[in-house]
């Protein structure tokens, strides 16, 4: 992006307008050409000629890699923190039964876990999730038990090393791990009766609390946050003190700071969160880039990487397709 006077004026005008609404403008336009310790500001992800949309991101801190999921075909792209161009790592369009993909995470061994969103809905022969080794070998392609319409949205690694997947169609979390040498998926927590199922996307973003005693989980359609105890899956609501968190999608925890990415609201909420994930304080809202719909983000080597989904481009999205570094300063 060239830094022309026109862009500078447009940015200033946008900042003033947003400030008048009580929100803080994102500084990324003013920093478009800056680099952080030799790393590019933005990473380019390959897309399809017919248009692509992206959602999830997982990171391998030890190797400096990130993985991004493509909604339109289920491709998984991999990038290196030091290089601007990411590459297709896993093919989609039916590869291993994968036609779409959502949340992504990576465990300490470098295994990559992928949530399938609606991949299996109406198609009982298709998996709901996948596990791959760091060299791309398929370790597992699984259906979750008990429900034919699971929408696996996001995934996080628990204190036991297992992967925990949220279900956006029901207030459920599924646990995936090896047992007796075989990968298995089981229903770990069912919050029916506590978390009311509503129209739209229910449970989504998930992060582990600082003391590892609980998961903090977002319910995007209602804007509520929930605490799931890692010991037994007990569920309780987190008091957000009336903060507007509707469209909460991805969650990022950095120490006692929790970031809630509110996709179509084009807003980011930051707050302090207790070590056990039981309470949040000091919620602040700021506008994100009005030309992007961020879905989620992860920390990689001390820097936040956020996914620009292209969800607002209709009927088809067009490139460039970006993963943005430090989008909110």
Automatic annotation (TrEMBL):
Top-level taxon in the UniProt lineage: Bacteria
Gene3D superfamilies per the UniProt record, alphabetical: TolB, C-terminal domain
Transmembrane segments: none
Pfam family, one: SGL
Limits of the SMP-30/Gluconolactonase/LRE-like region domain: 55-244
This protein's UniProt keywords: Signal
Sequence ranges of Basic and acidic residues compositional bias: 33-42
Signal peptide span: 1-21
Region named Disordered: 30-49
Name this protein carries in UniProt: SMP-30/gluconolactonase/LRE family protein
Organism in which the protein naturally occurs: Agromyces lapidis
